[in-house]
C-alpha cells in the first residue's frame, strides 16, 4: 500500500504513535509518506520505503496567522498525485482531519478518490476540539472521514458525548514494540542517577496543566519522607518552572532531577522503579505503557482511558484525580519491599505485552485494506483491480 501519514512531529504521544506505526508499515514493505511541518522526532529515514515531505508555510506580512491547513492540504494533493498515494491517515483531528478533507475534495475534482482515516488521540477531543471556536469544524471533519479510530473506549465514549458524530468509531489502542532491543542499563548507569538504596521514581510528559505536575511533586514529597528515593522529571513544557520552584519550597530540589526533553528514555526507564501519571485526563496514557514495557509499575489517576492500560493492583494502582495521599500510600505499598516491587515489575511487563504492536498492527492494516478496496473503482489513479 502507499500511505500518507499526517501527524504532529513533536514529542507528544500522537506523533509517536503515528511515527512508530508508519515505520512498522514500511518495514513490512508498504510505502509510507510522512507529511508534516518538520521531521518527526522518532523518524529514521534509513528505510527506502519511508519518505518525508515537509509542509512549508510562506510568510506574508498580511497574514496575522499563517494558513497551515491550506499549505498542508495543497501538499497532500501534490504528494498524492506524485506518488500515487492510496490512503490518507491523519493523526489528531485538529487541523489534520480538516486539511485532509479539503485535500480529498480537491483531488476528487481531478477524478482521484482516496479514503481518509482519522485517528483521535485525546486532547483533540477532550480539550481543544471541544472549544466552541473549533467544534463545528471538528465535528464536520470527523463525520467526513471514511474511517474514524480512537485510542481507547473512554475516548470513543467522550467523542460521542461531546460531538454529534454519526460514524462508527473503531477503538485501536496505543501500542508498544516489545521485541525491540531492550538493553537494560545496569547498576553503573543507575549509580549516576541515584544512591544504591534509593528507589527511582519517574515522570515523562510535555509538562502541560493536564498532567498535574504539582501532584507529582507532592506525591514524591510524601514518598521520600518514608523511604530513600529520587524523582526523575523528563520532558519540557509550561509547568516545568513552577515545578522546580515547588521542589525548592518543599526542600527536595536535590532529590529531583529535571532532564528536559531527552533522547535517553530507554536508559531512564530501564532504571526506574515506579512511574507517576496523575493526569486530569488521559485518553490512553502511552507514557505509562512505555514504562510498563520496561517493567515499571504505574501509579496513575483513574481518569479517561488509564484504567484500560494500568490494571488496578496488578500493574500498579489508580486513584481519583487529585487524591495525592492515596497515590503516595499506594506508591509506598509497591516500593517498600523488594519482593513486592519485583512482583509488580513482572506484572507491569505482562500487561504491556497485551499492547504489543504485533497485535495492533494487523487491525490498522485490515482497516486500510478495506478502505482502499472500497475506493479502488472510483479513482482515476488507482492501479489495483476492484473485486467487489
Ligand atoms: O499527552 C499529551 O498531552 C500529548 C497527546 C498527543 O496528542 O500527542 O497525547 C494524547 O495522545 C496519546 C497517544 O494516543 C495518548 O496516549 C495520550 O493519553 C493523549 N493525551 C491526553 O489525552 C492528555
UniProtKB/TrEMBL annotation:
<dbReference type="InterPro" id="IPR023881">
    <property type="entry name" value="Thiol_BshA"/>
</dbReference>
<dbReference type="InterPro" id="IPR028098">
    <property type="entry name" value="Glyco_trans_4-like_N"/>
</dbReference>
<feature type="domain" description="Glycosyl transferase family 1">
    <location>
        <begin position="194"/>
        <end position="348"/>
    </location>
</feature>
<dbReference type="Pfam" id="PF00534">
    <property type="entry name" value="Glycos_transf_1"/>
</dbReference>
<dbReference type="Pfam" id="PF13439">
    <property type="entry name" value="Glyco_transf_4"/>
</dbReference>
<dbReference type="InterPro" id="IPR050194">
    <property type="entry name" value="Glycosyltransferase_grp1"/>
</dbReference>
<protein>
    <submittedName>
        <fullName>N-acetyl-alpha-D-glucosaminyl L-malate synthase BshA</fullName>
    </submittedName>
</protein>
<dbReference type="InterPro" id="IPR001296">
    <property type="entry name" value="Glyco_trans_1"/>
</dbReference>
<feature type="domain" description="Glycosyltransferase subfamily 4-like N-terminal">
    <location>
        <begin position="11"/>
        <end position="179"/>
    </location>
</feature>
Amino acid at each position: 500500500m502507499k500511505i500518507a501519514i499526517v501527524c504532529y512531529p513533536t514529542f507528544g504521544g500522537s506523533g509517536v504513535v503515528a511515527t512508530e506505526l508508519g515505520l512498522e508499515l514500511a518495514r513490512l514493505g508498504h510505502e509510507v509518506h510522512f507529511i508534516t511541518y518538520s521531521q518527526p522526532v522518532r523518524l529514521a529515514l534509513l528505510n527506502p520505503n519511508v519518505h518525508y515531505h515537509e509542509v512549508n508555510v510562506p510568510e506574508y506580512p498580511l497574514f496575522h496567522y499563517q494558513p497551515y491547513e491550506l499549505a498542508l492540504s495543497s501538499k497532500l494533493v501534490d504528494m498524492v498525485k506524485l506518488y500515487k498515494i492510496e490512503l490518507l491517515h491523519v493523526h489528531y483531528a485538529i487541523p489534520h482531519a480538516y486539511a485532509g478533507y479539503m485535500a480529498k475534495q480537491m483531488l476528487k475534482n481531478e477524478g482521484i478518490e482516496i479514503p481518509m482515516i482519522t485517528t483521535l488521540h485525546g486532547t483533540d477531543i477532550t480539550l481543544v476540539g471541544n472549544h466552541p471556536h473549533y467544534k463545528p469544524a471538528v465535528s464536520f471533519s470527523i463525520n467526513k472521514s471514511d474511517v474514524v479510530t480512537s485510542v481507547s473506549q473512554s475516548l470513543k465514549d467522550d467523542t460521542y458525548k461531546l460531538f454529534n458524530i454519526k460514524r462508527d468509531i473503531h477503538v485501536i489502542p496505543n501500542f508498544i514494540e516489545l521485541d525491540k532491543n531492550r538493553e537494560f542499563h545496569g547498576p553503573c548507569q543507575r549509580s549516576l542517577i541515584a544512591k544504591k538504596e534509593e528507589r527511582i521514581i519517574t515522570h515523562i510528559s510535555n509538562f502541560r496543566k493536564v498532567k498535574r505536575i504539582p501532584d507529582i511533586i507532592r506525591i514524591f514529597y510524601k514518598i521520600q519522607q518514608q523511604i530513600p528515593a529520587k524523582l526523575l522529571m523528563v520532558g519540557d513544557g509550561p509547568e516545568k518552572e513552577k515545578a522546580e520552584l515547588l521542589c525548592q519550597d518543599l526542600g527536595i530540589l536535590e532529590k529531583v532531577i529535571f532532564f528536559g526533553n531527552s533522547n535517553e528514555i530507554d536508559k531512564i526507564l530501564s532504571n526506574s522503579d515506579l512511574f507517576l501519571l496523575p493526569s486530569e485526563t488521559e485518553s490512553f496514557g502511552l507514557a505509562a505503557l512505555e514504562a510498563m514495557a520496561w517493567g515499571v509499575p504505574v501509579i496513575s489517576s483513574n481518569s479517561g482511558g488509564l484504567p484500560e492500560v494500568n490494571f488496578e493492583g496488578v500493574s500498579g494502582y489508580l486513584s481519583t484525580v487529585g487524591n495525592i495521599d492515596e497515590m503516595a500510600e499506594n506508591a509506598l505499598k509497591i516500593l517498600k519491599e523488594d519482593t513486592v516491587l519485583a512482583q509488580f515489575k513482572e506484572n507491569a511487563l505482562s500487561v504491556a505485552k497485551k499492547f504489543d504492536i504485533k497485535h495492533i498492527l494487523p487491525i490498522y492494516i485490515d482497516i486500510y485494506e478495506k478502505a482502499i478496496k472500497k475506493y479502488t473503482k472510483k479513482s482515476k489513479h488507482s492501479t489495483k483491480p476492484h473485486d467487489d
